[in-house]
Amino acid sequence: MNAVWRAARAAVRRRRVQTFVIGLVVLCSTTTVLLALALLDAASGPFEKAHARQHGAHVVASFDTARVSPEQLARTADRPGVEASAGPFGQAVVNVPDGWLWTAGGTLSVVGRADPAGPVDRIELLEGHWATAPGEIVVNWPSQGSPGPQLLGTTLDPSGGPKLTVVGFAASMSKSASAWVTPGQMAAMHPASAQMLYRFTDASSGSRLDAALAEVTADLPGGSLTGAQDYFTLKAAFSALADSYLPFITFFGVLGLLVSCLIVGNVVSGAVVSGYRHIGVLKAVGFTPNQVVGVYLTMVCLPAAVGCVLGTLAGNALAGPILKVAFSGIETGRASVGAYGTWVSVVCLAGMPALVLLSALAPALRAHRLPAARAISAAGAPRTGRGRRVQRLLGGSRLPRSVSLGLGQPFARPARTLLTLSAIVLGVTTVTLATGLTGTMLAYADAGRDGGTRIQVSAGGPGNGRTPPALTDPQIEDRLRALPGTAGVRARALSQAHLAGQAQTVFADFYRGDASRIVRGRAPQAEGEVVAGPAFLTQRGLAVGDRTTLELHGRQAPVVVVGELIEGNAQALEASWPTLLKLAPDLHATEYTVRLAPGTDARAHAEAVEAIDPGLRARVPDTSNAGTTTVVTFSTVFTVLLTLVASLGVFNTVLLNTRERRRDLGMLKSIGMTPRQVVVMTVTSVAGLGAVGGLLGIPLGMVAHRLVVDHVGVVSFPEAMKDVWHAPQLAVLLLAGVVIAVLGALVPARSAARATIATVLHTE
Fold it and tell me: In which band, very low, low, confident or very high, does the pLDDT at 277 lie, cut at 50, 70 and 90?
């Protein structure tokens, strides 16, 4: 083993280029794979662990107390398939003023519960104490950390209800309520619904939970179940934003893994072929075939191990900022967002070297079988016949001799050529995918700025500590429309609302004026019409055309989903202004979006807006889109990494070819081939592969682009944003394969051109 180790170290020092290529390929691939695995683990593991720790409910069900009694609900706990249950708890909806606990006004779902413990949904108390007396309320704090004791003692004086004082903050991973009071206090609030929390023995899928709930409630009066929220809905809400990044990062990870396999296999195979003489010498001086295999495996594993360690470190360094962006704005409960298991690093540290070993094993076994005499006599020369025949056929054409010779060279080593072509195809696929994603995301960002620059105008009031405007809501809108340079105005009123059968808070945006960006259906106009983003609709099992009930300030209104937004907050929906007039006629707009005509000075217009009323504040919002920046940045980084790796594969192939054909190069130079013709011949040998790789990689990249953009959970791209391919762009992409091939071939080609005839023939 000592001799094997010394021979392997000597080979590593002597073959610096091959060592560098293997290490860099493994580094880039490890970094990419670790990022994909980290995001996948962070999107699923933390929520499941936190939910299980609190014995979270598999289903939170709401019932109409006018149709079913508490005794009937209690008996459902004994139904088959129920592992544990809690309740029934009284449930009511109370009104919340604007600015209370830094939230928008609206409604709050409150449940009467004696203590935070129990067999299901063990609520974690963060600050203060549990509500034990009348007039006390504990608020569900959805974000990480604690709000601090400074907010304890805040009072809530809902219209038509008792005055409540905040005595604690708690967290429920089941999102079973927005707040809790004592059962006695709930009875005084005269609840119209009751809540049951269930854990089922089979909770493997949403359909199983639906079936289990249907069996549990089968004996209850018809219409008593008013709504239900299952565990998978909460899980989808937790990872909705991260899931939007997961498809393309995973795809780039798979591409990196494939390129790693191809390039490592190519490099190691070439190392064996170009080392024929070295193999023969080792066997001649007494190395056994197994020791020769050990030398070549060790020679490959040394740079691979270094690249794997550096790639793991780089991936962990990048994972933190990436996960922070991916999970921003998510209601997490007690789940540690952005955290991923140590198994990710362990898999990369153990898996990538294993992958390199598997890639190296086949060519190393060739070295095992190769006789010493044949290895020494072969001297690295390629077998004659395969490339020669093609070169003779091409020689009869009108192509320059250097070009015909170059086009025939790939046929001399078909296996190596196939590996190199595969690397180029994957490189072009990556470039095509990145170009398509960039085009889609830029179109998405531009859609948010269509119609000109916008100004955000907010009205002062008690909620934000500013003087309220002297003008009324309609007067403000009229004055804004009358300003020179105004092309359109959109008024917005925001309130917390409640959807029938849903325990989660819903933010309702009521708009008047310009319409939102709709991808399906139409914008809401008449009373009872709403629209929402894909994340909101998916998490609540809604689609365009479905009906539900919206409750606000003690009033209810049946609503129908008439459209789907391109994007939208997972907790928010948009409703028509007539719907607001029915639910809360006293609520008025507090924000206005002013769309400016082309050529209007935004800063000057903002100053003119503030001059209308001292209670108005205007600002020119930042038009940059964080999601667009993130996707474009990630795509660019991964594209550069994988293009570099593919170019290194071509570089290695050309380097091996020139070394194997040094005798031929010497003979060609001796009969008059110039250095420039040597460069042309060498570059041509892979430029053809680059063109073929472009033809194959472009359609693969286009398919990958469509798969990625169709599976972004928080954005529903219209067809116009997906149709980013045009003839000039495709022509440029076709050249991408040629560029990758030429970049990889240029350095060894120039090196071969500079070699003198005497030097080449002397080495033979």
Answer: low
